[in-house]
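Format notes (please read before filing issues)

Several people have asked whether sequences and structure tokens are stored in separate files. They are not. Every record keeps both together, in the order shown below: the sequence lines, then the token lines. Line labels are part of the format and must not be stripped during preprocessing.
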Amino acid sequence: MPRTPPSHPEVSHPEASRRAVLGAALAGLATPALAQTPWPSRPIRIVVPFPAGGGTDAVARALAERLAPRLGQAVIVENRAGSGGAIGSEAVARAAPDGHTLLMNGNNIATYPLIFRQLGFDPLRDIVPVGMVAVAPIVLVVGRRSPYRTLADYIAAAKAEPEKIDYASAGVGSANHFAGQLLSQAAGIRLTHVPYRGTAQAMTDVISGNVASAILTLGSVTEFLRDGQMRVLGVAGPARSRLAPQVPTFEEQGVRNYDANIRYLLAAPRGVPDPIMQRLGTELAAVVQDPSLEALFNAQGFEKLWVDGPATARTLREEFAAWAPIARDAGIEPQ
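Then the structure lines:
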């Protein structure tokens, strides 16, 4: 259909035209200036939602030291502990999405909706991973006087007397707790969970025989394995740990699909501009390849790992879907 001509002729106003041209020119000058705002423009905070001295804190501090010179700004680690990591994680989710506030946490952040009823953020939506950087192998350990010499001994005893064998973890809803429930399901046994407030007392009670076993990180028990106070029955994951290559995996010993290892990731609030996320990802990937970082990680009980942000986000979604039925079967309810 032909366009209907206007009923009144259009009139050009010189002053209006000059204002329009001037406005366009100013906009053209302002846009590049905004686009070139330097980042980072001030120190960067990496929030660790756990107390200082733990595994997450150690990984964050190692990264901060190496990221700072690459980014040209100080990188400060801030510990904001409480509610199993939820308080500090929520603080980051609510922070300004300008790339100056980041989160260091484990992949078990995906289980938060399964254990916290009043969670003030969605960890799968409001936190955007930059990348996964390290893994802490999970192991099943018993005391040196334990009758269980192998994983086969342990599983046979658990099948003979369901719920008689107990295992210690770092608390209800912890990564260790979920790992124990996954072992029960994967091995077809029923274990009794004994939650502790952290791992120190749990290790003491395993050594003394007050609790039959514990599911802990390899790094946290290395000293006790070395001096013979503990015995390790298996390591989680698809392959043996480079930190203890003599320890067989659960898979090798007949327990299929048992991967409960803790993987550490750096993340940002949702909404950080793509160029900043890309820069963070590039610098983080370079830091992870630093030989000095690998040596430090190994000494602390971690193995280096690099998974980029989008792949890490997919992994977290998959883990939530995988852990949800395990939490339901174990009677783990949001508190």
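For reference, the curators noted about this record: DSSP finds eleven helices and eleven strands in the chain. Residues 1-35 have pLDDT under 50 and may be disordered.
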